[in-house]
From TrEMBL:
Protein name: BRO1 domain-containing protein
Listed Low complexity bias regions: 478-488, 553-567
Lineage: Eukaryota, Metazoa, Ecdysozoa, Arthropoda, Chelicerata
Pfam families from the UniProt entry: ALIX_LYPXL_bnd, BRO1
Family annotation (Gene3D superfamilies): alix/aip1 in complex with the ypdl late domain, alix/aip1 like domains
Residues in BRO1 domain copies: 1-131
Region spans: Disordered: 448-496, 529-567
Alphabetical list of InterPro entries matching this protein: ALIX_V_dom, BRO1_dom, BRO1_sf
Superkingdom classification of source: Eukaryota
Coiled coil ranges: none
Length: 567
């Protein structure tokens, strides 16, 4: 198409001819798998038309296919610059992808920042608690409102109203009475944990006393110190949850101001415009200003954000490494330095303010000269302390209570105690396994310990042994007596048994014999199987019969046979 547009008929004809050769080769090689008939028909038709036009009109020279210029590359797509964000609808998938060194530096920076922020907030809260405790001990600012000596101060009324709005002592009792089963379950779990720790420590102490210096493993009281502290904390939480309302149980049980006023003794009135009262009110205003400033400083510390990613990336690109400590300390000093300075100034101002309050309160107390002044002051202090305790207890219960899906403080505490119990079980199992292995090794070492050599006997033992008489000689061996020499040895008519073998049957005595008569032959006994007898051979010839005796033969004595032998 390009050659036709450029009126280059010769090149067009050459390319069509080359394309026709290629399509025929493809048809021959492709076989039935590919169908090139349509393409081949189109190429052949275009080749014929172009050749016809060239032969009759243009007469252009047709170059060889090898001499043609290669076909140029067509731009299928136009390249575009890489955008900063590929998708504007959602967050980038690899936006948070960072080098490992940068990621580790950011984690260390977050740890440093959290330590500083938490430390400064802890300082502020600790100082605020000290200030509140100091003012409560002086009954301030309630003592400034009690100038008449007969009515309740407005601050006491406000505190009593806030307690009643939160449900009073009944709300705390309801929370406690509704959860006796879970509370008992928590106490059982905690008692079981304490028992496991106690038994493991007692076992370690007993084995250490038994093996002494050979018991080389770490003592249990050092390893389980943190576990014991955690258990004590949980025990204290349960105790506070059940007994912390004792202070406010009697003082806040009445729902009206008349009951509170009746429980507070009267005192002498004090001038509301006296110098000491005016001074104390000014100091109380400064206390409220410090509290407000600390709330603002605490929120600023919590909300402080610093993006160290660009600095760490730039340092890694420029130097090839990141000096995290130097960069973090510099950035934290710039961002949190002013807040740390404000915290220090607030603490120093509080120390000076406490001294001024103490001096002004001393002057204020000297103006109150009455019998009931001290008693009334003590009652008001107790009421203020009871209110603070109630609010603290209510806040703790509200923080620990989760009404979503019916869960509550004790359920959460149950899960925490179960996790604590699992940790203790793992600890005790590991210690028991270690104990068994160590005991086994110690027992094996005791067994394999070589015995001490036998001590050499003294010399006098050897002399005593030499003087002993020789042992008695053994008795002489008995031999079987030989047969009488006068007796003739004749072969027996039956096979002889080997000497020492058992007899096949017992021997019966023969018939009685009379002198001058031949004895009766013995009664033959039934033959039984004798495993020791030799089988009898066949007779070599016919049996020989003995002749009748003419005279009685004299009786002969045989020592070995119970009856006379037949001749």
């Amino acid at each position: 198409m390009v050659c036709r547009a450029n009126k280059d008929v010769g090149e067009e004809l050459s390319r069509l001819q080359y394309a026709l050769e290629l399509i025929r080769t493809a048809e021959s090689r492709g076989g039935l798998s590919f169908n090139f008939k349509n393409d081949a028909r189109k190429i052949a038709q275009a080749h014929e038309e172009t050749k016809k036009d060239n032969d009759f009109i243009y007469h252009a020279r047709v170059p060889e296919a090898k001499a043609l210029a290669p076909i140029g590359k067509a731009a299928l797509a136009r390249p575009l610059p890489v955008p900063e964000k590929f998708s504007s609808s959602g967050p980038e998938l690899f936006e948070a992808l960072l080098p490992v060194s940068v990621s580790q530096a950011l984690q260390k920076f977050d740890v440093r920042k959290s330590e500083i922020v938490n430390g400064e907030i802890a300082k502020l809260r600790h100082q605020s608690q000290l200030l509140n405790g100091f003012l409560t001990s002086l009954n301030l600012p309630a003592a400034l409102e009690d100038t008449t000596g007969s009515t309740l101060p407005q601050s006491i009324k406000d505190k009593a109203k806030s307690v009643r709005d939160k449900g009073g002592i009944q709300a705390i009792e309801k929370l406690i009475n509704d959860l006796p089963i879970l509370l008992e379950r928590n106490q059982e779990i905690l008692s079981e944990c304490e028992r496991m720790l106690r038994e493991e420590e007692e076992s370690d102490t007993q084995l250490r006393a038994q093996f002494q210096e050979r018991w080389t493993r770490t003592p249990s009281d050092k390893l389980n110190a943190s576990l014991k502290n955690t258990g004590s904390k949980y025990r204290q939480i349960i105790a506070n949850a059940t007994n912390a309302d004792g202070i406010v149980r009697e003082l806040l049980s009445q729902p009206n101001d008349a009951a509170l006023q009746g429980g507070v003794p009267t005192g002498s009135p004090t001038a509301s415009n006296s110098p000491s009262v005016v001074r104390l009110r000014q100091l109380m205003d400064q206390v409220e200003a410090i509290r407000a400033e600390r709330e603002v400083m605490e929120s600023q510390l919590k909300d402080s954000t610093m993006d160290m990613k660009p600095k760490f990336l730039a340092a890694l690109t420029q130097d090839g490494s990141i000096n995290e400590q130097a960069l973090s300390v510099e950035m934290l000093g710039e961002s949190l330095g002013p807040l740390q300075k404000q915290v220090a100034e607030s603490i120093s101002r509080q120390e000076a303010l406490v001294r001024d309050i103490q001096e002004a309160n001393s002057a204020f107390c000297q103006e109150k000269q009455s019998k009931g002044g001290n008693t009334r002051e003590s009652a008001l202090v107790d009421l203020a302390a009871a209110h603070d305790t109630y609010m603290e207890l209510t806040a703790n219960l509200q923080e620990g209570t989760n009404f979503y899906n019916g869960t509550n403080f004790y359920n959460d505490l149950t899960q925490i105690l179960l996790s604590y119990q699992n940790k203790l079980s793992d600890f005790c199992f590991a210690r028991r396994t270690e104990k068994e292995e160590l005991v086994k090794d110690l027992q094996q070492s005791i067994i394999n310990k070589p015995t001490q050599p036998t001590p050499t006997p003294p010399s006098h033992h050897a002399a005593a042994k030499a003087t002993q008489p020789p042992p008695r000689p053994p008795p002489p061996a008995t031999t079987a007596s030989a047969p009488a020499t006068g007796a003739a040895v004749h072969p027996t008519p039956y096979p002889m048994m080997p000497q020492g073998m058992p007899q096949p049957h017992m021997t019966y005595p023969g018939y009685p014999q009379y002198p001058g008569y031949a004895p009766y032959p013995a009664v033959p006994m039934p033959t039984v199987y004798n495993p020791y007898a030799q089988p009898a051979g066949y007779p070599p010839g016919p049996p020989q019969y003995q002749p009748y005796p003419q005279y009685p033969q004299p009786r002969q004595q045989y020592g070995d046979y119970p009856y006379p032998r037949q001749q």
